[in-house]
């Protein structure tokens, strides 16, 4: 998902005609094979939806779609997943499922937000159907829907001249000057008003609270910042549509009070009582936090290269990839990111669907982002996100006064010093995965196996022996939603450790040796959930309670993303954090409703969380966060299939071709087709 966000950043920074937005990276043509049922909406299809909605007064401007009471815009355009039963029937020769697009229509003048659906392709008589209507204050998160932004800048910018002494003190490094010279730019640092990430604890049904800051921007484009010494709170009133700036922290640690308004800061400055501070002038003017190599290492930068000694061992047909006996459909869902669908080995499906439902991050400690909850799904296909992506990004944190004796102690708690005037911000990286496995069919069961040591009547040589204890998980159990201080996990909400094996298996299908066919799943263990019951951060990411959750597939539970509602789950995503208790961005609680898990179509929800304590090596870019989920056969085959895999996916037409090589006359031959149209 991160590359998609980065691409959208470059697109939206230079608004242009809608038809040209994706010209540099056109979507592949739809698959000619049955797997095309999984193809996500193309750019061309999305443009036809916009064309259908344009006569209704919907705005499609790159910026300014939703900045006042005339807002009328659509968002979160995505393919509505067809029911699994219809897809499998289609694979068996039945009718092709309808291709349905779903999206939100935000109408500020009427103060309502609606989920709409329309059958594709769009024709002259196409009209969307209203699926659900919600009050305006409960509309989903959309990045460009931020009335407060224009008001924020106008209200806070009177403070920027007070930052001139800090800005003027910055010292450009030789690498900074060389970089600017290469771009025909000059050294022009400035202070800038930014921020807008949502504060969960401070918001209510009437007021949405955001966190803002004044940061320092010096080179490397308008969107690159380093921590400034000012933070503040913005409160936006849904009813009056007015913004209030309050709780202004100016040079924290210098001895200033928390100011209740911009006017109070200006008055303190006029009276000479406003205490100022400094920053790390060398670091803020340097390029060490940039990705570009610095002299003398510039020559070490080598572009990525791909080399196939014996030719590629994969082929691509439409959006289906084949490799060494495997094939799967892959595409990018507009909200949920990369999807793997219909994963098969030698024609037998092992997984119907796998994807990351959400990435979340919660910031803590002395951070300027304290009290921020971030959901990656809320930013997908919208615009640049309000905080760094949760799996990577660049190190940001909180301002500290250079040389303060408390800095080292705070760094022990929340993150190493990034510079003399900024600390890293400790935060979480959490990911929720949905995995729909079909092991030798749809009738599956689940068990755990854990090593033990005890006496056994089956062992004659010793009184005791190692053994593997199997425990069947036979019921989902019920999610504890009573709201008290103690939470009891449902039976099928499990924690991971190094010794426990999670196994999905077929109770009826066996290999030729009589073993029940299965697949083993390894899920990384995560830190314990530290949030107390009732904490809003815990319940807007309730998937963190289960390293793995086992549920029965239901056609009513198409996606974990969004708010709970009657009927089909709708793709709301980071949907509305209020009214309290906060509705989850990704909610798995409603999947646990006491269903049997014996010989049913099983769907797994796995989770991984990493506590990220920032270190010096996180500059300029942290390493990828998190650990892998692994799958491996567990008596699924009769023997190890590696011995029978092909050496090459390519067919070479001439008799002179060497095994796995190329012809000298014709070059590469044709690709083995993965299916017949």
UniProtKB/TrEMBL annotation:
Entry GO CC: plasma membrane
Keywords carried by this UniProt record: Copper, Metal-binding, Oxidoreductase, Signal, TPQ
Domain named Copper amine oxidase catalytic: residues: 304-367, 391-641
Alphabetized PANTHER family for the sequence: AMINE OXIDASE (PTHR10638:SF20), COPPER AMINE OXIDASE (PTHR10638)
EC number: 1.4.3.-
Cofactor(s) recorded in Swiss-Prot or TrEMBL: Cu cation
Gene3D superfamilies on file: 3.10.450.40, Copper amine oxidase, catalytic domain
Cofactor note: Contains 1 topaquinone per subunit.
Family: Belongs to the copper/topaquinone oxidase family.
Superkingdom per UniProt: Eukaryota
EC class name: oxidoreductase
Protein's name in the database: Amine oxidase
Cleaved signal peptide residues: 1-19
């Amino acid at each position: 998902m991160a590359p998609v966000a980065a691409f959208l950043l470059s697109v939206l920074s230079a608004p242009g005609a809608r038809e040209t937005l994706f010209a540099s990276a056109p979507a592949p043509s739809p698959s000619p094979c049955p797997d095309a049922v999984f193809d996500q909406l193309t750019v061309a299809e999305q443009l036809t939806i916009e064309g259908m909605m344009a006569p209704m007064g919907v705005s499609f401007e790159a910026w300014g779609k939703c900045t006042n009471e005339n807002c009328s815009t659509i968002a979160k355009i995505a393919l509505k997943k067809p029911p699994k039963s219809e897809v499998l029937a289609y694979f068996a020769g039945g009718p092709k499922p309808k291709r349905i697009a779903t999206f939100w229509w935000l109408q500020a003048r009427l103060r309502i937000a609606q989920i709409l659906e329309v059958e594709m392709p769009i024709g002259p008589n196409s009209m969307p159907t209203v699926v659900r209507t919600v009050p305006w204050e409960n509309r989903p998160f959309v990045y460009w829907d931020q009335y407060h932004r224009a008001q924020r800048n106008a209200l806070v910018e009177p403070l920027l001249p007070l930052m001139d002494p800090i800005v003027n003190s910055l010292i450009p490094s030789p690498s900074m000057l060389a970089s600017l010279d290469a771009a025909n730019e000059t050294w022009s640092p400035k202070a800038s008003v930014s921020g807008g990430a949502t504060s969960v604890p401070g918001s209510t049904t009437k007021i949405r609270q955001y966190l803002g800051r004044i940061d320092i921007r010096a080179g490397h484009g308008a969107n690159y910042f380093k921590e400034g010494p000012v933070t503040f709170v913005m409160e936006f009133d849904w009813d009056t549509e007015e913004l209030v700036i309050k709780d202004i922290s100016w040079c924290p640690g210098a001895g200033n009070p928390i100011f209740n308004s911009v006017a109070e800061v200006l008055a303190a400055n006029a009276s000479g009582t406003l205490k100022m501070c400094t920053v790390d002038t060398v670091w803020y003017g340097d390029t060490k936090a940039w990705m570009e190599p610095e002299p003398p290492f510039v020559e070490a930068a080598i572009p990525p290269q791909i080399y196939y000694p014996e030719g590629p061992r994969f082929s691509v047909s439409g959006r289906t990839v084949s490799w060494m006996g495997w094939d799967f459909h892959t595409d990018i869902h507009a909200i949920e990111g990369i999807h793997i669908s219909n994963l098969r080995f030698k024609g037998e499906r092992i997984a119907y669907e796998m994807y990351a439902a959400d990435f979340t991050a919660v910031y803590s400690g002395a951070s300027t982002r304290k009290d921020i909850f971030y959901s990656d799904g809320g930013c997908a296909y919208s615009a640049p996100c309000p905080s760094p992506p949760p799996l990577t990004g660049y190190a940001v944190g909180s301002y500290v006064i250079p040389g303060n004796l408390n800095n080292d102690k705070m760094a022990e708690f929340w993150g190493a010093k990034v510079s003399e005037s900024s600390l890293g911000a400790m935060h979480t990286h959490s990911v929720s995965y949905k995995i729909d496995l079909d092991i030798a069919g749809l009738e599956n069961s689940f068990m755990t196996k854990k090593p033990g040591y005890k006496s056994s009547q089956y062992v004659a040589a010793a009184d005791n022996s190692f053994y593997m204890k199997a425990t069947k998980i036979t019921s989902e159990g019920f999610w504890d939603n009573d709201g008290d201080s103690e939470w009891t996990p449902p039976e099928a909400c499990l924690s991971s450790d190094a010794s426990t094996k999670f196994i999905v298996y077929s109770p009826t299908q066996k290999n030729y040796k009589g073993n029940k066919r299965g697949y083993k799943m390894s899920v990384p263990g995560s830190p314990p959930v530290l949030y107390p019951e009732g904490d809003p951060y815990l319940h807007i990411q309730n998937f963190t309670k289960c390293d793995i959750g086992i549920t029965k597939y239901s056609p009513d539970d198409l996606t974990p993303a969004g708010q709970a509602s009657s009927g089909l789950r709708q793709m709301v995503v980071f949907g509305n954090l209020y009214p309290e208790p906060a509705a989850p961005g990704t909610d798995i609680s409603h999947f646990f409703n006491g269903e049997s898990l014996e010989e049913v179509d099983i769907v797994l929800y796995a989770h991984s969380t990493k506590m990220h304590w920032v270190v010096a090596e996180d500059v300029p870019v942290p390493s990828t966060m998190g650990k892998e989920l692994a799958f491996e056969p567990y008596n699924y085959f009769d023997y190890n299939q590696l011995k029978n895999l092909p050496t090459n996916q390519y067919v070479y037409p001439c008799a002179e071709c060497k095994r796995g090589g190329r012809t000298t006359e014709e070059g590469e031959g044709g690709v083995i087709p993965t299916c017949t149209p």
